[in-house]
Write a structure and sequence with these properties.
The protein is of the alpha+beta class and 493 residues long. The protein has two domains: 289 residues, no CATH class; 185 residues, 2-Layer Sandwich (Alpha-Beta Plaits), CATH 3.30.70.270. Helices cover 66% and strands 6% of the residues. Bound molecules: 3'-deoxy-guanosine-5'-triphosphate and magnesium ion (MG) (2 copies). The site of one magnesium ion has 5 residues, from β1.
């Protein structure tokens, strides 16, 4: 591991020093941000070896530049290592960047880490450069600490999110055009802002970065920031743009003004990024919990099958569909026999268990996707069979009756010594509009017949004559009976 890190950091350091902007490094030094991110993503036990590799690689890389002295370099490496360790120590470990950003007070932690890490190591470096090279403390401190702090702020988010799902999402084929468009806009805008010297256009940069932040999330914003910095440095070190031709008599030099400018941008961007992410996750969670609620609202809590509410909705839909197509619609009411006694004998817990078992039988006995079975209330179930005639419904009902007997739930209070059901069903071709509650009532009347005839049986009511002969449940009264007659009569015409 030491060798791997040493080689990589050597190559990167040499490449940075060779190809990039000669004195831009006093504005932003990017490598330590990479190191901090890598430390955060690895267990602390591997830090020592990693750092050894990093500092050896960088140290050997630096020996290729002019006025290199081994002693100075050794102490500089120590300062650098202290800096990244302080930062990584103060920040939470990172498994995924989403989870990392959600760590409580993460913004404050990042700000503190970015001040203390480069700050403490900057003090050490200032002493070193003062003693060894006679540099003023403040200049030496600023050269070291500010550039490193900004560098960490610019590159650490990029490395942390490099392999995140967020980053992958940005480069999926359907998202790629938008990603490229937004980044292109940000980079082109940055080039304009920092290459135009006549007009102070710096105010344009923040909205551009905010655009990347809102459109491309934290990962996209990390790319934007990491790209904006070198563009700005490129033009500034060539004396272009708002910080390029800086009046020499000002107390704050141009480079430092650019650093302050960046520091404020990055500090403001980070919480915005977290807010955008929170909003996005909240919207997703809301959508998911709404979907869950919709499922729950339609489900019976005890048995897990559809509840009365969703049965009514489906009845409404199927009623209208059947009346449009002039197709038969069947309904069956299924009631457990002597269930009060079952509860008295075996207790309510056993009663509930039995209800669940019967519900499972019902579900297993209906096969068409449009069929509906629901808990209608108490120990009563309802079944809706669209596009099914009376004969078909009788077949399904009988199959269910038998399956419940075969379930063999012991019930010593029953003639059959097992739990049984009685089923009443009816079939009609609906006429648009009214009649749904009468439809249910017809099946209920048939169920009443089944109970009356001795239970554990299936009865149907489909003709006027049958209804007229039937003994309706006591509560109906003549007007209700007349309505039933009207519905059935209409059906027979
Ligand atoms: P019948 O054969 O005439 O239907 O007799 P029954 O005892 O089943 O009569 P009824 O339908 O009036 O009784 C309903 C009983 O079902 C009342 C209650 O003891 C029981 N019951 C209703 N809902 C539940 C429930 O959610 N859980 C349990 N364990 N029992 C229930
Ligand atoms: Mg019952
Ligand atoms: Mg009942």
């Amino acid at each position: 591991m030491v060798a791997a890190f040493a080689i990589i950091y050597f190559v990167v350091d040499v490449a940075l020093n060779m190809f990039a902007f000669a004195d831009g490094w006093t504005i932003i030094w990017p490598l330590n941000g990479v190191t901090v991110a890598l430390l955060l993503m690895r267990p602390r036990s591997s830090w020592l070896w990693m750092l050894l590799g990093v500092e050896i690689g960088t140290g050997v890389g630096e020996c290729l530049i002019e006025d290199f002295s081994p002693g100075m370099e050794f102490f500089q490496r120590i300062c650098s290592a202290i800096e990244v360790v302080i930062c990584a120590w103060l920040l939470p470990p990172c498994t995924t960047v989403d989870q990392w950003l959600r760590v409580p007070k993460i913004f404050r932690k990042v700000v503190v880490a970015l001040m203390l890490g480069p700050g403490i190591s900057g003090v050490l470096a200032a002493i070193l450069f003062h003693v060894a090279k006679g540099q003023p403390y403040l200049v030496a401190f600023n050269n070291w600490a500010t550039a490193d702090g900004l560098g960490i702020a610019a590159t650490m988010p990029l490395v942390l999110s490099a392999r995140s799902p967020q980053m992958q999402a940005l480069f999926k084929p359907q998202a790629l055009p938008r990603t490229l468009l937004v980044l292109g806009l940000v980079f082109a805008g940055t080039a304009v802002v920092f290459s135009v010297s006549r007009y102070p256009l710096v105010f344009l940069l923040y909205p551009l970065l905010l655009l990347a932040d809102s459109q491309l999330a934290f990962a996209g914003s990390a790319i934007a920031v990491a790209g904006v910095c070198p563009i700005a440095m490129y033009f500034t070190t060539r004396s272009m743009g708002p910080f390029g031709e800086w009046p020499a008599d000002l107390w704050v030099p141009g480079n430092m003004a650019l650093q302050i400018f960046f520091a404020f941008h990055m500090t403001a961007l980070f919480p915005a990024s977290v807010l955008f992410m929170e909003r996005r996750t909240m919207a997703e969670e809301l959508r998911a919990s709404n979907a869950r609620l919709t499922v729950l609202a339609a489900m019976d809590g005890l048995t897990g099958i559809a509840n009365r509410r969703s049965f009514d909705e489906r009845l409404n839909e199927e009623w209208r569909r059947a009346s449009r197509l002039r197709a038969p619609l069947s309904i069956a009411m299924i009631d457990l026999d002597n269930f009060k006694q079952f509860n008295d004998l075996y207790g309510h817990v056993a009663g509930d268990k039995c209800l669940r078992a019967v519900a499972d039988v019902l579900v297993s006995q209906i096969h068409r996707p449009e069929d509906v079975v629901a808990r209608f209330g108490g120990e009563e179930f309802a079944m809706l069979l669209p596009n099914t005639n009376a004969e078909g419904t009788a077949l399904v009902a009988e199959r269910i009756r038998k399956a419940v007997v075969d379930l063999g739930v012991s019930h010593l209070g029953s003639t059959w010594e097992v739990v049984t059901v009685s089923i009443g069903h009816t079939t009609l071709i609906p006429v648009h509009g009214d009649g749904q509650s009468e439809f249910i009532q017809l099946a209920d009347t048939a169920l009443y017949q089944a109970k009356h005839a001795g239970r554990n049986r299936v009865e149907t009511l489909t003709s006027l004559a049958a209804l007229q002969a039937a003994q309706a449940p006591s509560d109906g009264g003549t007007s209700s009976r007349n309505r039933l007659l009207r519905i059935l009569g209409r059906n027979e015409r």
